[in-house]
Amino acid sequence: MPGTDPLQAVRIVLDELPALPYLPELPARGPGADLVGRTAALLTGLPVETTPSGWRLALRPGRDLSRARAMLASDLDTLEEAAEGYQGPLKVQLCGPWTLAAALELPASQDVALADHGAVSDLIQSLAESAAAHIADVGRRVPGAQLLLQLDEPSLPAVLAGAVPTASGLRRLAAVGTGDATEGLRAQFESTGADGIVHCCAGRPPFEVLTKSGARAIYIDLSLLRREDEDPLAEAAEAGLGLFAGAVTPGHNAPGHNERGEAEAIATRVIDLWRRLGLPAARTTGQVVIAPACGLAGVSPERAAAVLRACAEAARTLPEMIQEGSA
Predict the structure, then answer these.
(1) What is the mean predicted confidence (pLDDT) over 177-199?
(2) For labelling alongside 222, which of 85, 114, 157, 264 has CA 20 to 30 A away?
(3) Which segments of 12-87 are extended strands (E)?
């Protein structure tokens, strides 16, 4: 979410998405509020610190780690207060293990953890333990919540393709096999017991890994979906996997485009995709969550609220549009 005020962000989310709110991230606050730093600060037994290029594993805890943990604790306090009495689904986002391994530098070199098999194993284990503790903490704070764990994996396609560069930039790190990638994700969901979502907003989402990861749903950017992606997506949907359809590009706001018209356009995009997949349109309402294509940090708070409102309105409009289309 945009801005630096956790209470404002939580209130927007609760107001606009009362049926599926989430714990916002506010990267504009700086290091430790970003996707990688926020998750790395949770790691058990693996302290981190900032570098000019991002984050790295550290030899001992320091000021950067303390600041990141303090921001998250404050966010959780804010959520606990604002969501008092809430009952229903509540989504929590963390950086997935493979994006984390491709971002965190090793202590003794500028290469990332992905270059060291032992470091990757330690990272996966630590993240699983940390994710379980985090989910338990949120559950204590919002006892009526049914918790969903979303793992953000924008770097997963590059990890699988062997496209992550070394520190020198002269070569690429070896590709991770689909089996290892799947198990790394599965370990996170098994440790928490929460219903899992894997979010991959990059092009060429690796459906084989996503669908076998133990997640209950996958979250993709529909604008990046290629025709050759539709068959594996259809197979995943036929198997019952949920779809968070990233159908809204947050920064797009055509002149004179009213919110009702935007909601109908969003719903139409989802219905058209579902029909191209050869699936019964009636299943859409029970299997699809309409969502922004990616994060909202780059837009104004007002636009962020409007995007969430349009997603919710599109979801309400969807059954009516499906019924009209089948009449």
Answers:
(1) 97
(2) 114
(3) 48-51, 54-57
Axis-axis angle for helices 63-82, 117-141 (nearest 10):
30
Residues facing 150 on adjacent strands? 93, 197
Give the model's pLDDT for residue 109: 85
Quick one: CA dihedral 268, 211, 195, 133, positive or negative? Answer: negative
Radius of gyration of the chain (CA): 20
CB 66 within 8 A of CB 114: no
Q: Are 291 and 258 within 8 A, CB to CB?
A: no
Residue that the structure tokens 């993240």 belong to: 127
Share of the chain above pLDDT 70, in %: 96
Rounded alpha-carbon distances, angstroms, from residue 174 to 104, 114, 165: 16, 9, 9
Distance CA 211, CA 186 (A): 10
pLDDT at position 281 is 83
Task: Kindly report the backbone phi and psi dihedral angles of residue 94, in degrees, each rounded to the nearest multiple of 5, phi listed first.
Answer: -135, 155
Phi, psi of 32 (to 5 degrees): 105, -20
pLDDT digits (tens, 9 = 90+) for 208-245: 999 999 999 999 999 999 999 999 999 999 999 999 99
Q: What's the predicted TM-score (pTM) here?
A: 0.95
Residue 292 per-residue DSSP state = E
Strands 217-221 and 195-200: parallel
Burial (CB count within 10 angstroms: exposed 0-12, middle 13-18, buried 19+), residue 226: exposed
Q: Rounded CA gap, 156 and 223, in Å?
A: 18
Query: C-alpha 306: how far from its chain's center?
Result: 20
